[in-house]
């Protein structure tokens, strides 16, 4: 997994966008990004994402920044802007992967919130559409990351988790990390499991 | 593309869930499902999804149902419940594809909203986690559908659209469907384009 895949949530309307912005951040974390940057008025979302990271593990960083525009302009690496008007993800994903993850160049993935300024389309190295249909910035980010990492992000291991979900055919099973480790080597200790 | 991949949004809190439920429906449409079923109190989301379908094409159906539980119980086909507690998507996606899309058996993909009743885990044929991390039901649905259809959904063509987005390296280009058809056969008519 690359050390420098960063998701930028561009724009945020407090109240109305809280849940979507939180989902953008949690999706970035779950699907292999190293960091999410939110507008500085999205403190509530940042708190939720940090809380999930404390409980379910990291490393994953959450930053609040008021200079979002400067950040994209000065990014020392590749900038991908996810937009339904962009090139088809299936046509450009291999090139983007080669330009970022494969050679360690930092990748900034911009997810629009409020209306993205028009000149932003020119500044981005790639404008990419996960379909050219209107749907969800969260869905677009998820599919983009899963394709960028070719599914390897699903096997990621988490450090410093307080709790670990053990995949199950049915029901819910949450254990402490030591118990999860024991199970992975085929030595599960049922007594240590903690159901939620 | 299969004729019977249906997404069920289980539970909805009017107001609080409107945007998420709308995104579930739009993601289902954009990423290859044939139909979305929403709880009958999600009329506002249904209206938005129908409006997008009228403008950007179909076929895609939106239904409101008050008997969601009966629907899952009586489903004549395969039921997949997306949950962070389920089996890893990368472990079961091939089997689910064989049990549904490949042989034409109708597939119901359940996306939780409010707390899903516990016995639901037993009733589903598959409980599937797109990671075992907390993130977003919209992200989980998106990755699940992209994997179910092995990316073929991205090449879907749309019928009866009033407008078509033409993938672009930069900027936004929206044309009427006849112009889009002409472009596909290499005979674009710039005069007919309508920028938004």
From TrEMBL, chains A, B:
Gene Ontology, cellular component aspect: cytoplasm
GO biological process, one term: tRNA nucleoside ribose methylation
Alphabetical list of InterPro entries matching this protein: Alpha/beta_knot_MTases (IPR029028), tRNA_m1G_MTases_N (IPR029026), tRNA_mtfrase_aTrm56 (IPR002845)
Reactions this protein catalyses: cytidine(56) in tRNA + S-adenosyl-L-methionine = 2'-O-methylcytidine(56) in tRNA + S-adenosyl-L-homocysteine + H(+)
Subcellular location: Cytoplasm
Keywords assigned: Cytoplasm, Methyltransferase, S-adenosyl-L-methionine, Transferase, tRNA processing
Pfam families from the UniProt entry: Trm56
UniProt binding sites for S-adenosyl-L-methionine: 82, 112-116
Statement: the UniProt record of this protein carries the keyword Cytoplasm: yes
Region of interest (Disordered), residue spans: 167-196
Comp. bias (Basic and acidic residues): 170-187
GO molecular function, one term: tRNA (cytidine(56)-2'-O)-methyltransferase activity
EC number, UniProt record: 2.1.1.206
EC class name: transferase
Subunit structure: Homodimer.
Record-linked HAMAP family: tRNA_methyltr_aTrm56
Function: Specifically catalyzes the AdoMet-dependent 2'-O-ribose methylation of cytidine at position 56 in tRNAs.
Assigned protein family: Belongs to the aTrm56 family.
Protein's recorded name: tRNA (cytidine(56)-2'-O)-methyltransferase
């Amino acid at each position: 997994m690359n050390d420098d895949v960063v998701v930028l949530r561009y724009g945020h309307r407090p109240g109305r966008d809280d849940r979507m912005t939180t989902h953008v951040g949690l999706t970035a974390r779950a699907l292999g990004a190293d960091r999410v940057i939110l507008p500085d008025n999205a403190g509530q979302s940042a708190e939720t994402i940090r809380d999930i990271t404390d409980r379910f593990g990291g490393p994953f960083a959450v930053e609040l920044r008021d200079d979002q525009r400067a950040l994209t302009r000065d990014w020392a690496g590749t900038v991908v802007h996810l937009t339904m008007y962009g090139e088809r993800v299936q046509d450009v994903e291999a090139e983007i992967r080669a330009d970022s993850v494969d050679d360690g160049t930092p990748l900034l993935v911009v997810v629009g919130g409020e209306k993205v300024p028009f000149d932003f389309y020119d500044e981005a190295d790639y404008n990419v559409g996960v379909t050219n249909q209107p749907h969800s910035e969260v869905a677009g980010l998820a599919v983009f990351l899963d394709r960028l990492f070719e599914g390897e992000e699903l096997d990621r291991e988490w450090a410093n988790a307080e709790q670990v979900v053990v995949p199950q055919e049915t029901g819910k099973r949450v254990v402490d990390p030591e118990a999860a480790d024991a199970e992975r080597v085929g030595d599960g200790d049922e007594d240590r499991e903690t159901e939620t």
